[in-house]
Each structure stands twice: as C-alpha cells, then as structure tokens.
Amino acid sequence: VVRIPTSPVLASSVISELRQIVGAAHVLIDPDVTATYRTDWTGRFHSEPLPVVRPGSTVEVQEVVALANRIGFHVVPQGGNTGLVGGSIPTKRDSVIVSTSRLQWIDEPDLLSAQIVVGAGVRLATLQHALLGTGWMFGVDLGARDSCTIGGMVATNAGGITVVRHGMMRHQVLGIEAVLGDGSVISHLNGLEKDNTGYDLDGLLTGSEGTLAVMTRVLLKLRPSQLRTATAMLGFPTVDAAVSATALIRRSVPSLESLELMLPSGIELVGSAFGWEVPEGMAGQTVLLVEVAGAEKVEDELANVCDALGTVMTADPAVALSSSARASLWRWREAHTAAIATLGVPLKLDVSLPQKEIRHFIDAVFRLPAPARPIVFGHLGDGNLHVNFPACFPKSTSEAIAAETHDLEVRVLALVSLHGGSVSAEHGVGVAKTPYLSMTRSASEIDAFRRVKRALDPLGILNPGVIVASSGD
Ligand SMILES: Cc1cc2nc3c(=O)[nH]c(=O)nc-3n(C[C@H](O)[C@H](O)[C@H](O)COP(=O)(O)OP(=O)(O)OC[C@H]3O[C@@H](n4cnc5c(N)ncnc54)[C@H](O)[C@@H]3O)c2cc1C
Predict the structure, then answer these.
(1) In angstroms, what is the span from residue 4 Cα to ligand 1's centroid?
(2) Which pLDDT band holds residue 472 (cuts at 50, 70, 90)?
(3) From the CA of 316, how far away is ligand 1's center (Å)?
C-alpha cells in the first residue's frame, strides 16, 4: 500500500477545513470530549488525542475523505466502538475518527419487498424497535445491540446469536451506499433481489472493516417476525456430550434459532459477578442455550428433543416461554462478556472451529499455562468460540506481562490452526489479529487483499494497519 505523506499532528488549517465541511459543532478536538471515541469497549485499545468528525450526510463524508486524499491524513470510520479487535481506534497520530453517529436515517420499511434502508449510524436496537408491529424483523441479533451500529455490523460482517437460522450480516445486505478510499461515492440501493451485473461490491465491502470505504447507508433484507419463541437451558456432564447433542438438535428442530454454549467456569463467574443464583440443575454443567422460534407450537419441538436427550442430560432442562422468563435464561449467556470485564482487561479471542474439533480444542486451551483460568463460551451452532483470559492487560502493563500475554495469544491461535479453524469467526481481524492472518489465509490471498485495497484506496487513507499491516508497520 502506498503510504500517504504524514505529519505528526494535523495542522489547524485542516481542522478549519473540516469545520467548514461538517460544521464547527461536529469537529471535536478537546481530549476530554474525544476520550470515549479513543478507547474501545474492551479498554484494551487507545489512541492519542486526535480530532473526531461527525458528518451528517454522504456528501459530507465524501468531502472529508476527499480532503484526506488532498492533504494527506488518515480516516478511521467508527460506529458504536464495540468491535473487540481494535479496528475502530486509530493507530496513527495523523488520523481523524469519522464517527457515523449522525447518519441516523431509517426509511419506511418496504413491506412488499421485505426490505429497509437505514443510515450506517443507526443502532441495532433502534432498528429492532422501529420494526416492532410491522410483522417483520431483522435477522441478526447480538449482545451489543444497544450500542453497535448497522454500519459497524456490515463492516465486520457481524454474526451473533441467530446465525444458525438467518446467517451473518452478509446474508442480510442487499445494497450499500459508501464513500470509497479515493473519495468516490458508490450507491447500489435499487432493491433488486437479483442483480447479476458485474462485481459484488456490496459483498466486498461487507467485512472490509473500514479499510476500503466508509459506508453511509445500507439496504437490508427483513425476515418474518416469529409468533412463538421458546428457550431452554440443557445441562450436560461434559463438553463432548453437549457437542454431540447438537447433531440431534439440528436434525430434529427445524425452528432452531440459537444454539449457544456455556461452560461451568463462565456460569460461575457470571453468578458471582452479578450476584445471580444459577438456574436449578445447571451449576457445574456444560450448558446449551437453545432457542426455537416459528409460527406454530415450536415448544413442542423443544420438548421432543429434550425427551430424546433425556438420559444424556444431567438434570431437567430449564424451559422458558414468556419473554421475561426467556430473558432470565439469556442473561446468563449475554452477561459473559460484561462479567469477564469486571475482572480487568481480558485477552479475547474469537475463533472458528470444525464441530468435530471443538472438544479437543477446548481441552487443549484448558491445559495451556496461563495467568488466569480461561472462560470459553460462544455460538456453538456455528462452531464459533470466544476464548477469554481475564485480566491479562492490567492498567500498569509491564513488559513481562505483555510478553506472557502475547505468548498465550500465539499458543491459542496456533491451536486453532492445528485444529483446522480460523483466527477470526465474527469479530474480524482489526489490529489484534493482523499478525496472525497468515495462519488462516494463504500468501496469495493476502496479496490479493493488498491489491483490492490499492484499487479502492490508492493512497492508503482508510484505517491503516487493519486486516493487513501497512507496509513499514
Ligand atoms: C457485549 C458484546 C457482545 C458482542 N457480541 C457479538 C456477537 O455476538 N457477534 C458479533 O459479530 N460481534 C459481537 N460483538 C462485537 C461488535 O458488537 C460487533 O463487531 C459490531 O458489529 C461492531 O459494531 P460497531 O458499530 O460498534 O463498530 P465499531 O466497533 O465502531 O467498528 C468496527 C469496525 O468497523 C468499521 N466501521 C464502523 N462503521 C463503519 C462504517 N460506517 N463504514 C465502514 N467501516 C465502519 C470500523 O472502522 C472498525 O474497523 C460484541 C461486542 C460486545 C461488546
């Protein structure tokens, strides 16, 4: 990637040009005001004080990116800042954070075509709320729903808790409007289910983590709302028993919506972090959280599979039908990330594995020498595990601790590679996984990534160091 000429800090003349584009109120430079934009959700990734710009339209985004090309500064797109791999936090001092917080449009849903156009800065929970009562829902849901944005979710190809049913963001995106790294605007919002004219630019930008374009508007597919939903916690004596049970669950439960895994150490941590009492029979168990949803009596499908698994399970399942009872089961799974964060800044690794390797991989992770007991949980239905080692980045990080953490990270990702997995399942590469990309992708694939980057962002303006390291890094 061609490096742009850099200056250590942006000249005041650039700040005044940015003010002319987006208005003075939307160029933030006070370090206290920009602090929350400069540290990510985990607290692991930070940047120096630098400007935050909040454009209010595609035209304003285009003018900011064009200015960056003309003057020579970097642009880091940022949505809700909940990405867990450092992709939304600049690594270069001559950067401007482009926050999508003002790109907040939600069009009327097109109920005939089951589609909706939303601004990139719309939060997931806001979209979910806007669809209530329409008979339609959005197919991706995840624990960060109150903060993460649709633009960030497309940029990371987010997955979440319903991938077994509806797929990832890539399966929901029908079109994108975006400003490419060279400052040109592309807009493909014609709403056609089928459009086989040329390259799939929407597919290319999905998962591009802010390195190719700043997305401003997205056309999304909608799914029919489910009339009935039921959730159950099933306890198993071992990981092996739980993983084996998923074959029967997939085969015999067509209305399967979620299939999540929790281990005893994670359940214990969540209980102690928030003072909650573990549901009866689930303490010390490997737990599957299973959700079914559909038009008919889906709870019958759940009851049948629980009967079939009867002798394998360690206790009666905890079943919930009302939304409050279901939420009280889901909180155990969704509070894992927050419970881990109460112990300090963790080493977090989101990885993907073939189903047949999951038991062996988890065994091997628990055998690794580590400063903290691992907390492993995840979207088992998709072979997606989140491996966490709590409090690996204490505030006063010493060299020795950093080296130990790095060593642990390398060992876990080497195990992933050994077991035929991928170093990123749904969070993306960011800056955290850049050194490990070659464990998962071949040299010729990474070279192709660089050539795509050069074509759409010839001066390397956008998000340097994310996905593929910049030359010289
Ligand atoms: C509690 C918790 C639970 C989570 N659960 C899941 C989960 O189940 N599944 C999952 O996939 N993720 C999960 N995540 C991770 C995170 O929520 C997702 O990656 C989400 O998609 C990030 O959205 P964001 O708006 O916060 O993006 P940010 O963190 O702001 O940015 C993420 C990346 O996208 C780029 N970006 C953001 N907006 C744009 C844009 N408009 N145009 C171009 N690039 C852009 C950024 O530059 C960065 O590289 C979770 C996070 C938390 C904190």
Answers:
(1) 27
(2) low
(3) 37
The angle formed by the CA atoms of residues 184, 186 and 191, to the nearest 5 degrees, is: 170
Question: 470's torsion region: left (phi>0), alpha (psi -120 to 50) or beta?
Answer: beta
Determine what percent of the chain is predicted with pLDDT higher than 70.
96
Ligand 1 cavity residues, CB under 6 Å: 41, 76-84, 87-88, 100, 120, 142-144, 148-149, 151-153, 155-156, 158-160, 209-210, 214-215, 337, 426-427, 463, 466
pLDDT at 2: 38
Instruction: Let me know: does 301 contact 323? Beta carbons within 8 Å.
Output: no
Angle between the 358-367 and 399-418 helix axes, to the nearest 10 degrees?
Answer: 160
Average pLDDT, the chain: 94
Tell whether the model's pLDDT for residue 471 goes beyond 80.
no
CA of 339 to the centre of ligand 1 (A): 19
pLDDT at 4: 40
Sheet arrangement for strand 213-221: 115-119, 213-221, 173-180, 185-187
How far apart CA 363 and CA 361 sit, in angstroms, is 5
What radius of gyration, in Å, describes the C-alpha atoms of the chain?
Answer: 23
Q: Ligand 1 pocket: which of 78, 141, 342 to mutate (most atoms <8 Å of CB)?
A: 78
Structure tokens of 447? 């070279």
Q: Phi, psi at residue 278, to the nearest 5°?
A: -60, 135
DSSP conformation class of 123: B
| Cβ atoms 37, 99 nearer than 8 A | yes
Percent of the chain scoring above 90 in pLDDT: 88
How many A from CA of 155 to the centre of ligand 1? 7
Residue of the CA atom closest to atom 44 of ligand 1: 210
- Rounded to the nearest angstrom, the distance between the alpha carbon of 13 and the centre of ligand 1 is 32
Q: H helices of 132-175, where?
A: 150-156, 163-166
Which residue, by CA, sits nearest to atom 36 of ligand 1? 152
- Strands 375-379, 384-389: pairing is antiparallel
pLDDT, tens digit (0-9, with 9 covering 90-100), for 137-168: 999 999 999 999 999 999 999 999 999 999 99
DSSP per-residue string spanning 303-370: HHHHHHTTTTSSS--EEE-SHHHHHHHHHHHHTHHHHHHTTSSPEEEEEE--GGGHHHHHHHHHHS--
Per the CB < 8 A criterion, the answer to whether 245 and 253 are in contact is: no
pLDDT at 263 over 60: yes
Residues 387-435 pLDDT 10s: 999 988 866 555 566 788 899 999 999 999 999 999 999 999 999 999 9
Q: Is the pLDDT of residue 116 over 70?
A: yes
